[in-house]
């Protein structure tokens, strides 16, 4: 978290135990312990007066807190985690504990199809209420963050055997454009750990980084990152079938995310770089063959 937000996060982290204690008293909760500390939030387990398990989530960035809560409330109704209480003054929320325990239940029947259905449902709901949200735009994220960092890293990094692959993909990015007709509220962070299952075997999407933009971005993120290097082709086919967005439309977004991920992994010395290179090679070869 300090690496992501800088030294200002140190003071926030020092204050988190006191903040969570204050909010727990406000909502008559019993704090039990910490569950997770990622790069954007700290999560603690708790129970309410009826001994129901809950999660307390505190965000270091109030803007990210507001965006996430806005999206979760927009999507409320069984496809995401339910928001029970919020403390805007502290950027803390009380959330349900999916599956009765951190990480959800172990029941993941027909996982790929179920998750794809849930994501499609989120997009339908997000598309039906575009005037009710005020969230960052995918177009700004791409223009101001993703494309500049791809260009910078592609120029400066020693990519070894992946140089020609990356150069080809960077050149192809110029042809990538959003379709306003597919614009919706995006989840934006579809890793497998962000899709726990409840006790009825239903996926519940959590920890969004919501934006408004082309649904193809979410389907590409899910295809590439849900389980990096595993069942990529199957997820791509399922994404196209469920979303009714053709594979040739989703695939370039997959390649954008893959080249961005590969450059990041090389830059940070992440051991997943070879896995991402294999995914990008698969997608590049698929494009060269003209597969549909």
From TrEMBL:
One of its GO terms (biological process) is secondary metabolic process. Keywords: Transferase. One of its GO terms (molecular function) is phosphotransferase activity, alcohol group as acceptor. The keyword RNA-binding does not apply. Pfam families: APH_6_hur (PF04655). Gene3D superfamilies: Transferase(Phosphotransferase) domain 1. This is Phosphotransferase.
């Amino acid at each position: 978290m300090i690496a992501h937000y800088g030294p200002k996060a140190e003071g926030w982290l020092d204050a988190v135990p006191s903040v969570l204690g204050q909010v727990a008293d406000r909502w008559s909760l019993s704090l039990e312990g910490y569950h997770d500390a990622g790069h954007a939030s700290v999560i603690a387990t708790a129970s309410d007066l009826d001994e129901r398990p809950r999660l307390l989530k505190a965000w270091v960035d109030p803007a990210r807190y507001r965006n996430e809560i806005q999206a979760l409330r927009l999507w409320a109704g069984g496809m995401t985690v339910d928001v029970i209480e919020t403390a805007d003054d502290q950027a803390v929320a009380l959330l349900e504990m999916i599956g009765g325990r951190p990480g959800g239940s172990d029941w993941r029947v027909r996982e790929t199809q179920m998750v794809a259905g849930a994501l499609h449902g989120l997009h339908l709901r997000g598309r039906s209420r575009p005037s009710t949200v005020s969230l960052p735009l995918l177009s700004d994220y791409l223009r101001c963050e993703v494309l500049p960092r791809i260009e910078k890293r592609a120029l400066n990094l020693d990519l070894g055997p992946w140089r020609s692959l990356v150069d080809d993909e960077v050149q192809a990015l110029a042809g990538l454009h959003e379709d306003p007709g597919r614009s919706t509220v995006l989840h934006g962070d579809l890793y497998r750990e962000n899709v726990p299952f409840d006790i009825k075997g239903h996926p519940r999407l959590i920890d969004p980084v919501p934006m408004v933009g082309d649904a193809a971005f979410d389907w590409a993120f899910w295809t590439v990152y849900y389980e990096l290097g595993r069942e990529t082709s199957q997820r791509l086919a399922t994404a196209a079938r469920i979303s009714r967005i053709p594979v040739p439309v989703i695939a370039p977004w997959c390649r954008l995310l893959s080249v961005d991920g590969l450059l990041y992994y090389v830059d940070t010395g992440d051991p997943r770089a070879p896995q991402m290179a294999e995914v990008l090679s698969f997608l590049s070869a698929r494009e060269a063959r003209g597969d549909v």
